[in-house]
Amino acid sequence: MSESMNQPIHDPILSIKNLTVVYKDTLFSLKKSRFSRPAVDGVSLDVPHRGTIGIVGESGCGKSTIAKSILMMTEPCGGEILFNGTGLDSWRRNRLAYYSKVQMIWQDPFSSINPKMRIQEIISRPLHNFFHLSSDEIAQRLHATIRKVGLTEDHLVMYPHELSGGGRQRVTIARALISEPILLIADEPTSALDVSIQAQILNLLKELKQDMALSMVFISHNISVVEFLCDSICVMYMGRIVESAPREVLVKDHRHWYTTLLFESLPNGPRPKERKFKVDLGELAVCEKGCSFAPRCIRAEKLCFESSPDLVEIGPDHFCACHFHA
Amino acid sequence: MKIDRKIDRKIKKYINNKKFLIGSCMLLVMVVLSLFAPLITGYGYDETFVGPALEPPSKDYWFGTDRLGRDMFTRVIYGTRISLISALTITSICFAIGVLLGLLAGYYGGVIDMFVMRVVDIFFSLPWVLIGLLVVVIRGPGLLSVVISLSLAYFPSFTRITRSVVLSVREQDFVIAARLTGESNANIIFRYILPNCFSALIVQASIIMSFAILGEAALSYLGYGIRPPEPSWGVLLQQSTNYMWDNSYLVILPGLFIVFTVLSFNFMGDGLRDLLDPRYKRAYE
User: Fold this and answer.
1) What b/e readout covers A196-228, taking b as 16+ CB neighbours within 10 angstroms?
2) How close does chain A come to B102, measured CA to CA in Å?
């Protein structure tokens, strides 16, 4: 363990280059999709060491697919992912080493832990699998971790159904952190929780990020949550990054109309003066040739339906994919 | 303290379910009868001419006597032993084989699934009497033949149920999460998936128990199973058929025992299905 921990840490710790993922029809599927859109289409992003990247976007925009690709749960069709300077293809041969350094927090704390296991077993399983530790060492790390996430020793002998949603989410965080990973993927870790609990979990993650020198990919559909936790933010729409920028820049000076829509859809966000976006009725309109957001965008002109805008740098570290970003 | 109360609540939940309570009480009666059979009657089950032959039920011979003057009550309660033992053996064997195959088929899918399920389909399509006949032809009648043939006949239902439950459990987040925590396939199957299949399987086990009792009695009745003078309920019925018009008690009383035992398992199964179904949970708590 110590050997791998002492390896120099590559910066950026995770780098995704031109990732494309397409979900194919199964061999005998009854309904053939007429037009198969890639779930993730040419996404590139870097996660700096100890940095936090937020990915925001609506349901189906490909956020979770990126998380799945990073964790080797889907096979990408194109592009590559480098973790600590090494491609995932080589990590695939050594999954245990990879998963001891890259861990994930799940969206739904009710389905992501085994209801038939006690909390102590749930949390300590990664240690049994990744490292050869004595039972004393395991107990020691178990107790240290459980305190770190704000649970007590009393919780260890309980079963998951005896805990609340927030308590369960703390358990999944403890399970992810006990192997002392360097990269944490959080896939909407607060969206299944009550608002008051959400704040607690977010504060906990922020603290842990500091204490454990974690790099993090934080995925959410709620831009205010991402804003709270992340150094830089990527906004995704239909499998593509449409705007990415450091947090302050994105909050104050967002240029893409979809980012504007996300900010305006916050409960306490800026009120739009007039309705800027067409309301979708039924199936989401898809524009095959041009900008994928064009059917919903009020600024859309003929150009938008004809050619797809590239992601261009419009300021320092500020990228935007819109013909009318100015 | 806290744990005590929790156990209390659990027990109360089971007692409040009438079907489960009645079923388990009925079963308890049968188990006590079979365990303490030698204490309950003074006769041996193959002791002939303890009284006059074909004597109707009386104070001395509660269920009457058969044509060899053997006490029917003694024979019936010794028959309980054979019935329960064979039912338990058959169900455990079916459970072990069926659940293992179902786990493999459901978890790995693909070619393994295809192969296992086609084998299971073959056994599903054979009537159990035919399987019984086949086994008897190969290795002669006896308790072991009954166990083998009924195990072969009933294990497919476990495989089917296990596979279908595994298919739904397998897709849950905690199984995917288990893979991320470095669990091996064997660990995922036995620590994560199997414990979450149990409630469906326990219900199925209680149903197969009653099937096994009926099956054993039927095979013995046909002469493929337990042989006389061993007092299986099937044997008792078969030996009494010649006298059933004049001495109907000879068939009615063993028949009632079969009904009673099968009903006890069915009630228990029904009750367990309600108790273990998470959707009913709130109603009992």
Assistant:
1) ebbebbbebbeebbeeeebbbbbbbbbbebbbb
2) 20
Instruction: Indicate whether B153 belongs to any domain.
Output: yes
Domain total for chain B?
1
Closest-CA residue in chain B for A72?
B180
Nearest CA in chain B to A105: B177
Q: Which residue is it, tokens 């150094």?
A: A231
Domain boundaries, chain A: 2-23+35-253
Contact call for residues A245 and A315 (beta carbons, < 8 A): yes
Given a contact cutoff of 8 angstroms between Cβ atoms, the answer to whether B146 and B85 are in contact is no
Between A113, A126, A129, which is nearest B174 by CB? A113
Query: Which pLDDT band, with edges at 50, 70 and 90, does A274 fall under?
Result: low
Q: What is the CATH number of the domain that holds B178?
A: 1.10.3720.10
B5 within a domain of the structure (yes/no)? no
- Do A116 and B181 count as a contact with CB atoms less than 8 A apart? no
- Look at residue B240 and tell me if it is in a domain: yes
Q: What is the CATH number of domain A2-23+35-253?
A: 3.40.50.300
State the residue range of the domain holding B176. Answer: 14-34+67-284
Q: Does A144 touch chain B (CB under 8 A)?
A: no
Question: Which of B6, B10, B180, B189 should be substituted to probe chain A, the one whose Cβ sees the most A Cβ atoms within 10 Å?
Answer: B180
Q: How many CB pairs under 8 A join A and B?
A: 52
Q: Is B110 exposed, middle or buried (0-12, 13-18, 19+ CB in 10 A)?
A: exposed
Banded model confidence at residue A27, pLDDT cuts 50, 70, 90: low
Interface ipTM above 0.85: no
**Backbone angles phi and psi of B34, in degrees to 5:** -75, -35
Residues of A in contact with B177 (CB under 8 A): 104, 106, 112-113, 172, 175
Please check the confidence at residue B240 and state whether its pLDDT lies above 80: yes
Answer yes or no: are the C-beta atoms of A103 and A174 closer than 8 Å.
no
Q: Would you say residue B195 lies in a domain? A: yes
B196: closest CA of chain A, how far (Å): 7
**Cis? peptide before B229, omega within 30° of 0:** yes
Q: Which residue does chain B place closest to A103, by CA atoms?
A: B180
Contacts of A125 in chain B (CB under 8 A): 178, 181-183
Does the beta carbon of A145 lie under 8 angstroms from any beta carbon of chain B?
no
Residues B21-34: pLDDT tens digits? 999 999 999 999 88
Euclidean distance between the first and the last CA atom of chain A, given in angstroms as a whole number? 51
Tell me the pLDDT tens digit for each residue of A174-197.
Answer: 999 999 999 999 998 888 888 888
Segment A121-150 mean pLDDT: 91
Give the Cα separation of B30 and A63 in Å (integer): 60
Q: What is the pLDDT of residue A272?
A: 64
